[in-house]
Amino acid sequence: MALSLLDLPYPKTALEPYISSRTLEFHHGKHHSGYIANTNRLIGGTDLEKKSLETIIKETSGDASRIGIFNNAAQVWNHSFYWQCMKPNGGGSPRGMIKEKIDADFGSYDKFVEEFKTAAIGQFGSGWAWLILKNGNLEVIKTSNADTPFVHGLKPLLTVDVWEHAYYLDYQNKRPDYVSAFVDHLINWDFVNRCIG
């Protein structure tokens, strides 16, 4: 069962001016597509070839002999999740169940934003910042490179990609500006509410 690149859930121009169509062309069309091609090549002819993406990731996590498979497969999953975490005219204060949960677990939306931005901006090198559920409580974490929360028994609800390819064409070295734009204008809280539900 070869993996294939899914279409973005919005047109490539839909996130402008915060993320340009040029960034999405490279990020989705080259980087994400490349991770899929690499995963298909690496699992071809192996016991993983017919398994689901999540199973491939779980079975290769922590296995040094299969780190290439894990890195590419986890990046496929992380990116597919990331695209859904954004929408045109998104961001700002959430509504629904996630708002209640943020208020209960962080004390306020502003406190959540502070923690999320700190994680995203403070991630050294490549990686991701996440809002996750752990034992029924919300937490903000960060992961390096291709690492992903679900292999650690955590439920991902929201992520921002802080690999440079996610923002460099639009923001150069100004990761804080990209993270602020993501939080203020792009977060798809409807998707987060579906994840938490």
What does the model show?
The chain has 197 residues and is mainly alpha-helical. It has two domains: 21-84, Fe,Mn superoxide dismutase (SOD) domain (Helix Hairpins), CATH 1.10.287; 97-196, 3-Layer(bab) Sandwich (minor pseudopilin epsh fold), CATH 3.55.40.20. It is built from eight helices and three strands, in the order H-H-H-H-H-E-E-E-H-H-H. The protein has helices spanning 21-43, 53-60, 67-84, 97-106, 109-122, 168-171, 175-186, 189-196, and strands spanning 127-134, 137-144, 155-161. The chain has a three-stranded antiparallel beta sheet, with helices on both faces. It is globular and about 50 Å long. It starts with 20 loop residues before the first helix and ends with a helix. The model has no long low-confidence stretch (mean pLDDT 97).
